[in-house]
Amino acid sequence: MGRYHAASLAGYCPSAELVRVVDADETVAQEVGRDLGIEWSTSFNDLIKDESIDAVVIAVPTSFHADLIIEAAGAGKHVFCEKPISLERQPTVEAIAATRGAGIKLQIGFHRRFDPDWAAATSRIRAGDLGEVYLFRTSLRDMKPPTMEYIKGSGGFFIDVTIHDFDTARWMVGEIDEVMAFGAALSDKAFAEVEDIDNALIFLRFHNGALGVIDNSRVAGYGYECSTEVMGSKATVRVDNPSRVHMQWLTPGQAARAYVESFIERYPIAYRAELEQFALAVCDDLPVPVTGEDALAAFDLCTAAHLSMQQRRPVSLRHESGLHGVAYEMAGT
Amino acid sequence: MGRYHAASLAGYCPSAELVRVVDADETVAQEVGRDLGIEWSTSFNDLIKDESIDAVVIAVPTSFHADLIIEAAGAGKHVFCEKPISLERQPTVEAIAATRGAGIKLQIGFHRRFDPDWAAATSRIRAGDLGEVYLFRTSLRDMKPPTMEYIKGSGGFFIDVTIHDFDTARWMVGEIDEVMAFGAALSDKAFAEVEDIDNALIFLRFHNGALGVIDNSRVAGYGYECSTEVMGSKATVRVDNPSRVHMQWLTPGQAARAYVESFIERYPIAYRAELEQFALAVCDDLPVPVTGEDALAAFDLCTAAHLSMQQRRPVSLRHESGLHGVAYEMAGT
Amino acid sequence: MGRYHAASLAGYCPSAELVRVVDADETVAQEVGRDLGIEWSTSFNDLIKDESIDAVVIAVPTSFHADLIIEAAGAGKHVFCEKPISLERQPTVEAIAATRGAGIKLQIGFHRRFDPDWAAATSRIRAGDLGEVYLFRTSLRDMKPPTMEYIKGSGGFFIDVTIHDFDTARWMVGEIDEVMAFGAALSDKAFAEVEDIDNALIFLRFHNGALGVIDNSRVAGYGYECSTEVMGSKATVRVDNPSRVHMQWLTPGQAARAYVESFIERYPIAYRAELEQFALAVCDDLPVPVTGEDALAAFDLCTAAHLSMQQRRPVSLRHESGLHGVAYEMAGT
Amino acid sequence: MGRYHAASLAGYCPSAELVRVVDADETVAQEVGRDLGIEWSTSFNDLIKDESIDAVVIAVPTSFHADLIIEAAGAGKHVFCEKPISLERQPTVEAIAATRGAGIKLQIGFHRRFDPDWAAATSRIRAGDLGEVYLFRTSLRDMKPPTMEYIKGSGGFFIDVTIHDFDTARWMVGEIDEVMAFGAALSDKAFAEVEDIDNALIFLRFHNGALGVIDNSRVAGYGYECSTEVMGSKATVRVDNPSRVHMQWLTPGQAARAYVESFIERYPIAYRAELEQFALAVCDDLPVPVTGEDALAAFDLCTAAHLSMQQRRPVSLRHESGLHGVAYEMAGT
What we know:
Four copies of one chain form a homotetramer. Chain A is an alpha/beta fold. The first copy, chain A, contains twelve helices and 15 strands. Chain A has helices at 2-12, 26-36, 44-49, 62-74, 89-102, 116-126, 148-152, 157-172, 189-193, 263-266, 270-284, 292-311; strands spanning 20-22, 39-41, 55-58, 78-81, 106-108, 133-141, 176-184, 199-206, 211-217, 225-232, 236-239, 247-251, 254-258, 315-322, 325-330. In chain A, the strands form four sheets. Chain A has an eight-stranded mixed β-sheet with strand order 11-10-6-9-8-7-14-15, covered by helices on one side. In chain A, strands 3-4-5 form a three-stranded parallel β-sheet, sandwiched between helices. In chain A, helix 4 (62-74) packs parallel to helix 5 (89-102), helix 5 runs antiparallel to helix 12 (292-311) and helix 8 (157-172) packs across helix 12 (292-311). Chain A is globular, with a radius of gyration of 20 Å. Chains in contact: A-B, A-C, A-D, B-C, B-D, C-D. Chain B binds chain D through residues 143, 221-223, 243-244, 250-259, 261, and chain D through 143, 221-223, 243-244, 250-259, 261. Strand 12 (247-251) of chain B pairs antiparallel with strand 11 (236-239) of chain C.
């Protein structure tokens, strides 16, 4: 993802000027730097000391996120960081507090908000064209699972996969009062052995009364799926999964379309747009479109989902809108 | 529905000969009889005493189903009856026992099993083309709600709406170990006033491990929806909602299709096919494709859903395949 | 087709009562009669002498059409006849004149007018919703060619295939001033050997100024295609080819749908509806929806197409609406 | 288009470095230069004298194309030029000869070849997956017409619109032996007044025997249409028009999708990819993917279409593959 973001910044973000790529692995740093014709180094510390630099984009293993955010905040650099901020709540809160204290901007990589399809749907929902929301339904499914090594360090299914859907749910429909999650390890015993799952259904009850359901899978097999439906009193909107190409191939008795196979294929625009929006927020001193508090809210919802699955019961949540965003708290736990 | 079935039997079921229509309301009986050029009467008793008659189709208010089935069974008539057999468990069991005791056939009106789209999907699942099932997802939504009068006597949301989806779930994927239901009254306070709901999400865990979710609504607004997806290890199948006509209408910047608005539009074939299959089962002494035991299983799942929603907890079920079908029992209740 | 029409009349046309099936081949007559539980015979002459009979449906080889129509007209029977009336113009005209003289109804089997999709599109065009028509485009393609024996006796490509599209063009858009046809024998030399073609493009200029193009094939391979687009000043309408079932089958990287493979699959309703409409016209003494004159107009357009292809030039047509329909005349030939 | 190409070169073509924008209008030159942070000038002459520059992209009114190509060739600069090279044949030939003489590369802006959808389809055709081609069908339609001022200087309908389809036809299927064009001015008398048309159908017969039809319109109304179907002996491929967003909007009884409205929306990738491919050809000394000879062939086909329409007859063409591409010659004219 670091490479991808670097290439986006170099080639597709008019409001940003990529000046340096940093990777602890010298070979990688050098290769990416050379490919993009950009200065490279292995020192994050040097980077944040560089006064000519306004902002950093962090795409490293999750365990380093919070510390790097705090260091960057200390140096007064604005930060774009991949989700989640941390696999633990405390460092998440501390990282957010550090950026707030330093008065710097922190944007989290919930890219779906920047996809033109989702943005169009959400914009019409906000304009009231859908009326009151009754039902929210979304699917996020990977074609094939990552390695078991990755799974072990992923923080678990919800924080690795569902977190995007929790953010989408909050963004499109609003805050969430109740969560109940159901999971299963179906494709491979290895998931159960590391106490993880490969398929999940997550029920939501929104504060406005609407019902919601998220379905997730690591083993969809046919392709990468990311699609949503929101049903309302005036209209219903569906964001579809596109074909890989706008092409039908017809053979005897059958018409076939190629399915997208990865998030990179599905989101040709969103990953670039989120960085451009971040750059614009930095340049023009605007609020970032996805905050640390949004990341914390999604994190808390993942925790609630996990608790719900373990205890086989719905988990209620309290949320309070404050100065800096929404604080979630699990009721009665 | 009685009229519709009568017309189907008269015009579209080569294996059946419609000989008489019966309605307690003489005006209705006469009108339908005249329209179809068929003998009519107001006496169900006369009907089942008629030795020239092999079978009866019952499409009356649910409260009469069980008694009429028992009467017909007593007279040795095979019975096709609309779902549910009863709003209570005991009469359901008794009606089934009566038909079993009399050695007559009892088929229940789960029409979806006879739709070519669903039948094609299920047939491929059974052939193993899908591999192991991971996820089952189905929607059944009405465009507009029925009258509150109807709602009050409907036996509640699950037994009136979800029952079809429970049958579909069992038919396509298999028996169900766990149910959890979430409901809400969102469109009109009148639903809450009669302690009913207008939208629901029902979670399922199948005995084979697969996860499932049913979404139902009485107020979809845009049209009648009945669509399903089953995701498996080898393939995934989706049964779509068809357009009302195979026609696109393009105006500046937009391409539109007409949506089906009712179950009658959605199922031009299934309602006729279920009766023809019943007639064939009677003529050739074959097993009926949907049994009283199937109806009882779906009924028990509705009860579990209701209990789950009331107690805000998942409800586990035990099921045992016996001589006459599947017996469900709620575990620990 | 005879069998199919007989079954439709027996089972799906409430306004008709099928009383007898006639086939010169006793085995066929007996089999169909027995299957439908209907009287059968081998004598058309007996049939038309039967005073209890109001109308006959003719589905025999084209070479017998005109004579049987004339005989039926002589006996005062209304006639539904498959297209074309004849492979020659003179017998076509004579058959029409005979029915007109006898004051009986003659309906020709242009079934597409009775399909709900086409009917919906045409109805909106007539209501003015499309505005002025600019472009008409239609495809009619068979999956596989018939036998060469059939081809030899078919009267040639245009009269066997394109005739349906000429009727559709006239019905949806209006009369035609100019035709130019291009053909090729591409899949098999046998087509060229019998001086026929297997693929064609036919250009149309309508009297109202609109342009049109028909494409036809005997060897589409992937399935049976029948679809149309009409582009107008206010809107554009597309009648699509439906899927065989409303089902998508997803395997790694691909989503597939089954294509319809034959006209029987494509038109589950139209073949029945045309007979029911004919029966209604007979019962209620209404005008038939497709007249002999419509058949003659389509025939003349086929002749113009053939001439155009042979002489490699556009052929202009004059048409005059008279008492009994539209008379076409090739200008300057 | 100049602005758009400049932005593409600046932001999306890693193999090109945009160094200067030139426009005869100082205001425009300055504005574009400032927007892109690039040097600007009003002198094409200065530009081609600049030794640090390898190549120029020409996007000016057609009447200047040929001269600028010749000048650039004289200065040894590689040239990318928008279609057509000229509204006349002689300057087209001279421009091509000049580039050939100077040993520089000339690429013409037939962008559709660089769209992923069309490229995927063509690639499978070339791989033989389609078998022998029977039918080629393509639509290119603008939502709304340009100004009459533009129409007057456009060189006529075929050279302004159909030229893209001729190139696509040659690219996907092969050389063309026969052309016949039909046109009409339907939406506005102003088209007829300038002796132009607003709708056209163009028939093609390919050298390999396949039939083809192009339909074009300046007044499609509903949106911008660019879609193709190629039917072959083994398979058929369809390149569809995409939705504007992957979103369905459902209101009572209707499901709607937004249609693309312009070529800019339809081709988010192709216009950038053609420039990147040109840059790659220059950098690595590879053949350009679309040559001046391709432009000449498309020009000649436009001329044939025009002649055919005027003389109301099919026009035959001879083509000869030579050292430098394909030379078309109208047979018997």
